[in-house]
Specification:
Layout lengths: L6 E7 L3 H12 L4 E5 L5 H6 L1 H18 L15 H25 L3 E4 L2 E5 L2 E4 L2 E10 L3 E3 L12 E2 L1 H4 L8 E5 L3 H13 L2 E5 L11 H13 L3 E3 L4 E6 L4 E5 L4 E4 L1 E4 L3 E3 L13 E2 L2 E2 L12 E3 L10 H15 L14 E3 L4 E6 L2 H8 L4 E7 L4 H6 L4 E7 L4 E8 L6 H9 L4 H5 L9 H11 L9
Parallel strand pairs: 1-2, 1-6, 2-3, 6-19, 8-15, 9-10, 9-15, 10-11
Antiparallel strand pairs: 4-5, 5-6, 7-16, 12-13, 13-14, 17-18, 20-21, 21-24, 22-23, 23-24
Helix pairs in contact: 1-8, 3-4, 3-6
Bound molecules: flavin-adenine dinucleotide (FAD).
């Protein structure tokens, strides 16, 4: 490519959720874009994260449906789980989406540069000795699996999520270190597919960033499903045994399994990429940005998992769109991170948007906050699905909804409406006058808002 053609309005380093969304939106706005990717566009979410894990969870849901079908008057027997078949279904979903994404990127006229990029000046990314210059540079290099000191991931018995989703044989007993979203999702999928599972979590509860009521509901449901939950339990060491692994915790207890999944979080992938050398301000490996996602060096922006905050694909998409529009001069409104919905896709699911009860009270004061919990026991569709759980709505007394927290089968789909309520700063009274279809789980959202508006319907006053 001649030098003049290596000059772009925008050079994006990293083709994951944040980077490719930025590239797509920028090209839509008429900007010329180079997208540098050393592996596959789509990044962690498409190839190693959201999509493959959700396919595994869905396969597990199918197994559970067969296993428990007699509860609905349908007699069936689960013969076996063919993990090769599950993997082929999962890989096929990823393959189709990857093909679609490649086609989309091509159709938008984006120049995809294959190879490892390094920031060599504030406006230039170098790939295999070739410089690509941009009026703006967007850093979008994503994240990697973190471990603990002295805990080496060997990819065979001590696994990261990447190896865990490629297993050729289902573990008999999996030990999961970390009760955050990734650990909980694997625990749920493996249990559904037939494994024994034990989760070790140092904090007092699973999914600790969620409202405490959600953690409680999830733990109760997991225990009922036979998933061992060891909260307040700190990992000490792991040794390999003939059969697999023996994990010791600080109390001195040991747990035997055939593998250990390390799910203690993800760190920003920012080392050795030239960021620090270009004097970009960093904090514990994250790129420091202002609320317009501008880094400390003019012309450089950062999106996705390398910006401290929730590591979610849709946050990355939103970051990418925001930066493209800002560069194009559209002056979009900065993203309110509290308004980004979160879903843990286990069985049962946990979903939330806005502030937890506790955070709302810290921020606004005890007297200014009120909440209502509507039990899914009163919701027709949830009874048909035989799921337990709740919708909890937190509001500013005489003010808008501050947070919505859900637990139960399929509640992840309800967060779409919940995030509109939160982000549009609706009052419960506004939502109470809207009609929810019967019988659906969305009715439970309606019921919780009716109750908060002082006129509960299918609930005791
Ligand atoms: C197991 C798992 C399950 C998850 N499930 C969900 C979910 O259900 N929902 C959800 O919202 N989020 C989920 N996530 C999180 C989600 O995947 C991330 O938040 C999202 O991928 C972040 O996007 P990103 O663009 O910041 O980074 P990434 O998607 O990691 O993309 C970064 C890209 O940059 C490339 N790159 C890095 N360095 C260079 C370089 N020097 N040169 C060239 N290319 C480079 C990488 O190859 C990669 O493609 C999950 C993550 C994991 C691990």
């Amino acid at each position: 490519m001649p030098e003049t053609e290596r000059k772009f309005d925008l050079v994006v380093l990293g083709g994951g959720s944040g980077g490719y969304a930025c590239a797509l939106r920028a090209s839509q706005l008429g900007l010329s874009v180079a997208l540098v990717e050393e592996d596959k566009v789509g990044g962690t979410c498409l190839h190693r994260g959201c999509i493959p894990t959700k396919a595994l969870l869905h396969a597990g849901e199918v197994a559970d449906a067969v296993r428990h079908s007699a509860a609905y008057g349908i007699n069936s027997t689960l013969d076996s789980v063919d993990l090769a078949g599950v993997n082929s279904y999962k890989d096929d979903v990823v393959r189709r989406l990857y093909k679609g994404l490649q086609g989309l990127i091509k159709s938008r006229g984006i120049t995809v540069v294959e190879g490892r990029g390094t920031l060599v000046s504030p406006d230039t990314v170098e790939v295999q000795g070739t410089p690509y210059q941009g009026n703006h540079v967007v850093l979008a290099s994503g994240s990697y699996t973190k471990s603990l000191p002295d805990l080496a991931i060997d990819g065979e018995r001590v696994l990261s999520s990447w190896e865990a989703m490629q297993l050729e044989q289902l573990p008999r007993h999996a030990i999961v270190l970390g009760g955050g979203v990734i650990g909980v999702e694997f625990a749920s999928a493996w249990r559904s597919l037939g494994a024994e599972v034990t989760i070790i979590e140092a904090l007092p509860r699973l999914v600790a960033s969620e409202d405490a009521a959600c953690s409680k509901a999830l733990e109760r449901a997991f225990r009922k499903r036979g998933i061992g939950v060891l909260a307040n339990t700190s990992f000490r060491s792991v040794e390999k045994t003939e059969a697999g692994v023996r994990v010791s915790v600080t109390s001195g207890d040991t747990y035997d399994g055939d593998l250990l999944l390390v799910a203690v979080g993800r760190g920003p992938n920012t080392a050795d990429l030239g960021y620090e050398a270009q004097a970009i301000e960093m904090d514990r490996g994250f790129v420091v940005t202002n609320n317009r996602l501008e880094a400390s060096v003019p012309g450089v922006h950062a999106v996705g998992d390398i910006v401290a905050g929730m590591q979610l694909a849709h946050r990355g998409f939103q970051h990418g769109i925001f930066v493209a529009e800002d560069i194009a001069g559209l002056r979009p409104t900065p993203i309110n991170e509290d308004g980004i919905p979160r879903v843990t896709y286990s069985d049962p699911e946990v979903a939330s948007v806005g502030l937890s009860d506790e955070r709302a009270r810290q921020r606004h004061g005890d007297d200014a906050v009120e909440s209502v919990t509507y039990d899914l026991g009163g919701n027709g569709k949830s009874q048909i699905l035989r799921t337990q759980g709740f919708v909890k709505v937190v509001r500013h007394r005489d003010g808008p909804v501050l947070g919505i927290h859900l637990a139960g089968a399929r509640v992840g789909e309800l967060i779409g409406e919940a995030q509109l309520i939160y982000n549009w700063e609706a009052f419960p009274e506004d939502v109470a006058s809207l009609v929810h279809m019967h019988p659906t789980q969305t009715e439970a959202l309606g019921e919780a808002h009716l109750a908060l508006a002082g006129k509960p319907l299918h609930a005791h006053s």
